[in-house]
Write a structure and sequence with these properties.
Elements lengths: L3 H36 L4 E5 L6 H5 L10 E4 L20 H8 L7 E5 L6 H13 L2 E6 L1 H6 L20 E4 L7 E4 L6 E4 L1 H22 L15 H12 L7
Helix pairs in contact: 1-6, 3-4
Length: 249
């Protein structure tokens, strides 16, 4: 059996290669939607509608090199650091109330991350976005969603999948059970890849969006590292412009 670190390295390398080769077109569509919003002077939203998918919103929050007008949805009820066993992602109506609190409105773009794409919060959120007229880019794993039985208790009562409702779908290729490393003598695998996939995808969308904006003659509005000379001063204009608009600025 291949040693564990090498197994994980090979799995992650294959994953990123597959996303690059097979999902670049979808990522470009997502980046174009974001670029249109930014060029029009609007914000876009990033939401992980589950405990660990929530981490991708943190990645886009005031992050050096990433777009400033990104309204990240970071709610304590979904963050594992506040207690993963509260199961807020399974509470009916939780997702739509978050959209209201974060002022997601008609015409906006929302990047929604959830590997399984079946829980109450994920489906409530995308259905509410459809009702509001919000464009949803889903970063999810369709094969994983469709592999979960319709009568599984963790599903939304509608039995719908995020991947079948979103306007644009980017496949994160999360395998059944999430983990990818096999151990001698054990029936289960260890070490998941979904977070790495999410981080690659959101930063790839960010990069492509900035390229699109630059190609239109629009200076990409990005955060500069506050740990290098001039970074804090450069960021002040963005902070002044979006304070009170971006919830977590």
């Amino acid at each position: 059996m291949v040693e564990a670190i090498e197994q994980y390295y090979l799995s992650v390398s294959e994953l990123i290669t597959s996303i690059f080769r097979e999902q670049s077109e979808a990522m470009t569509k997502a980046a174009t939607l974001v670029a249109d919003a930014v060029e029009a002077g609007n914000v876009f939203h990033v939401f992980g509608s589950g405990g660990h998918s929530n981490m991708v919103a943190t990645e886009m929050c005031h992050r050096a090199g990433n777009l400033i007008p990104c309204n990240v949805i970071l709610d304590p009820g979904l963050g594992c650091e506040h207690g993963a066993t509260r199961w807020c992602e399974k509470i009916p109506g939780y997702g739509p109330n978050l959209l209201r609190y974060y002022k997601v409105k008609k015409g906006d773009v929302l990047l929604q991350f959830n590997a399984y794409g079946i829980n109450q919060c994920s489906i409530d959120t995308v259905l509410e976005c459809k009702r509001l007229g919000v464009t949803v880019v889903a970063i999810t794993s369709p094969s994983l969603s469709h592999s979960i039985p319709a009568d599984f208790a963790g599903r939304h009562p509608s039995k719908l999948n995020l991947c079948d409702l979103a306007d644009v779908v980017i496949d994160s290729y999360t395998p059944y059970g999430e983990a990818v490393v096999s151990l001698e003598g054990y029936p289960f695998k260890v070490s998941p890849t979904s977070t790495i996939a999410n981080m690659f995808i959101v930063n790839a969308i960010n990069a492509k969006c900035c390229e699109i904006l630059a190609g239109r003659g629009v200076k990409p509005p990005v955060w500069i590292s506050g740990n290098i000379p001039g970074g804090t001063e450069s960021n002040q204009a963005g902070m002044d412009k979006y304070f009170g608009i971006l919830r977590h600025l």
